[in-house]
């Protein structure tokens, strides 16, 4: 019962939506399908490929460290979404459920999470550069801008995160 109540909060619902987005659309199966079956020259194909941006993979031949570093971007997107949803005031201070501030707080949290996840994950690459970090952060923020509305809608209607 306590687990179910956590997801009725705006931050909990938004974090759950972020986790589902990353697990489903970041999976190796979806990523491979999107690359093979979509045309990046069309808006729909571009968006379907964008959904796979924080992709993850699990190869049993890799060491645990390699798996974690390789999947750090996907992990950080979910974790940072939760952090930003708790820090942004829209979901915390909304007096009524379903206000537009909850929607924008969820959307903004996903934009920030995508940008910072990419920025931080770039630091763990071999030979990271400031330019690569900036490019990655831009790609992450772009992902959050075009996909984060889903997290925003998931945040609607949840009660405040704290009592």
From TrEMBL:
Transmembrane segments: 12-30, 67-88, 100-125, 137-157
Keywords: Membrane, Transmembrane, Transmembrane helix
Record has Transmembrane as a keyword: yes
Protein name, per record: Uncharacterized protein
